[in-house]
Design a protein that fits this description.
The complex is a heterodimer of chains A (227) and B (249). By secondary structure, chain A is an all-alpha fold. Chain A has one domain. Chain A is 87% helix and 0% strand. In chain A, helix 2 packs across helix 6, helix 3 runs antiparallel to helix 6 and helix 7 runs antiparallel to helix 8. The longest helix of chain A is centred in the middle third of the chain and has 30 residues. The two termini of chain A are 26 Å apart. Chain B is globular. Chain B is mainly alpha-helical and 249 residues long. Chain B has 8 helices and 2 strands; from the N terminus they run ααααααββαα. Chain B has a two-stranded antiparallel ribbon with strand order 1-2. Classes of the chains: A mainly alpha (227), B mainly alpha (249). At the A-B interface, helix 8 and helix 9 of A face helix 4 and helix 5 of B.
Chain lengths: 227, 249
């Protein structure tokens, strides 16, 4: 397959999924509001001391981003599974892993990108400033695509399985741990004055590894689910 | 002798039955020897006193927990590649034993941590990754039981086991990656052992004992899985009946 037709199939899937998401924009809005609500609950539970809030901010924001990604995972494949489109995707000559890559990128634009764009605002709520805020945005920009890539594997595995909502959390959250550690670690270390570069590099490594391996594993899981 | 014939459950069932007593006997003997050496022969540690002796259970259990995950993933991969039923059954049989060793490693680690660090639990990298390994075992087992279709259950949990195997090197290298409370590895390929020879010997004997125990238990469990899946007569019948039923197939 030529280079351009590969890109055509990926961008075709992305355009289709984004169009579908725009037609049902309330789904995407729900994830955004969920994120804002979860993050806002922590000061209410922990107390309003600025020093405490600044300490827990990286972890809270990152866990909230994790949960937001997790809750939107059922939208990646389930609608297409129910109306039979997914079966056609397995049958077309384009490699399934490429189509999966397109779907995951679209999922990131719908549920990951809003998190990245909102994060400076939420960071300000917790009293983050200057460099830490920048590192937070950068870490989420590098980390949320990885969350979508890994999450897609879980979403494909539990397709059509009973109790899939809880099961996907159980499968995916342990795999999210390195991303959480590096992501929150980048912000924490930049606040401590030692710079977040090392953790950001590791996040980048996670992203590259997941871009390379996850679509392949997701495609394998989809084939198993559709047999 | 053609080994590939044992990839058929019908042929493997009686073979496993014959092997179990041998592995079990070796496991018991080595466990007795290893525990005796660990508790009575090995010298007292000059820093940690007697409490260090838990490592004769803790370290082999932690090693086995990671090793069994890799073995499970290998069987899962073989099953996916060769489409062999027995491989999936082996992967299914390994998971509970691996989870048990993971839990044992966490439990003995906590028992060691209380007198040594003064806390049952610290958020150290190796402890955390061992906990995550337990979650992954749980994920593999729960994914399998949630799916009614056997073929899909086998393959889905195989994919998940293979994805999760990425985590095992992270556990191993976490000591180097994150600088934490957990003491550095005492046994390493590069520098050799820093322990007394008897301590090392007891630990290695216990590791082999746990290994043999795992094989015996896994073979016993894989026989149960076969009985369950191939609708053989139940365990209420005499074992001889099952042997006959298997050979009649």
């Amino acid at each position: 397959m030529s280079h351009s037709s590969m890109w055509d199939s990926i961008s075709g899937i992305i355009q289709r999924d984004l169009l579908l998401a725009m037609r049902r924009w309330s789904d995407a809005a729900m994830s955004v509001f969920f994120l804002v609500i979860v993050v806002s609950l922590f000061p209410l539970g922990v107390g309003p001391e600025p020093a405490v809030l600044r300490t827990i901010a990286p972890g809270v924001l990152w866990v909230a981003a994790l949960l937001t990604c997790l809750l939107s995972l059922s939208r990646v494949f389930t609608p297409d599974y129910l109306d039979g489109v997914l079966e056609q995707m397995v049958l077309v000559p384009q490699p399934l892993s490429l189509l999966v890559l397109g779907k995951v990128l679209a999922h990131w634009v719908i549920s990951g990108l809003p998190v990245v764009l909102l994060s400076p605002l939420l960071g300000l709520q917790f009293g983050l400033d200057g460099e830490a805020l920048g590192v937070l945005v950068l870490s989420l920009l590098l980390g949320t695509p990885t969350l979508s890539m890994i999450g897609a594997i879980g979403a494909a595995l539990v397709l059509g399985v009973r109790g899939s909502g809880l099961l996907v959390a159980l499968l995916v959250l342990p795999l999210y741990v390195p991303v959480l550690i590096f992501g929150a670690g980048a912000v924490t270390s930049s606040m401590a004055g030692i710079g977040g570069e090392a953790n950001l590099s590791l996040l980048g490594a996670c992203l590259v590894l997941s871009l390379f391996l996850a679509p392949w594993a997701t495609a394998a899981a989809l084939r198993v689910a559709l047999e | 002798m053609i080994w590939s014939k044992y990839s058929a459950p019908q042929a493997f069932y009686p073979l496993a039955g014959r092997l179990i007593p041998w592995f079990a006997a070796v496991a018991i003997i080595l466990m007795v020897v290893g525990l005796y050496m660990g508790f009575f022969v090995a010298p007292t540690d000059f820093q940690q006193g007697e409490s260090y002796r838990i490592i004769f259970v803790h370290v082999p259990a932690a090693w086995m927990s990671m090793f069994l995950y890799v073995v499970m993933a290998i069987w899962a991969g073989v099953g996916m590649g060769l489409n062999a039923r027995l491989s999936f059954m082996m992967a299914q049989a390994i998971a509970p034993t691996g989870a048990m060793f993971t839990f044992l490693a966490l439990l003995t680690g906590a028992m060691w941590g209380k007198p040594t660090w003064g806390a049952w639990w610290v958020w150290d990298a190796r402890l955390t990754s061992e906990l995550i390994l337990l979650f992954q075992y749980a994920g593999v087992m729960l994914l399998r039981t949630s799916i009614d279709d056997l073929r899909r259950a086998d393959r889905s949990s195989a994919v998940f086991a293979l994805v999760g195997v990425v985590n095992v090197p992270i556990i191993y290298y976490s000591v180097q990656w994150w600088n934490t409370l957990h003491q550095g590895a005492s046994v390493s390929m590069a520098t050799g052992s820093k322990m007394a020879a008897t301590m090392l010997m007891a630990m290695l004997i216990m590791t082999i004992a746990f290994w043999m125990y795992s094989i015996a238990v896994i073979l016993a469990r894989v026989r149960c899985v076969m009985v369950e899946r191939e609708s053989l007569p139940t365990w209420d019948d005499k074992p001889a009946v099952i042997h006959e039923a298997v050979e009649a197939r």
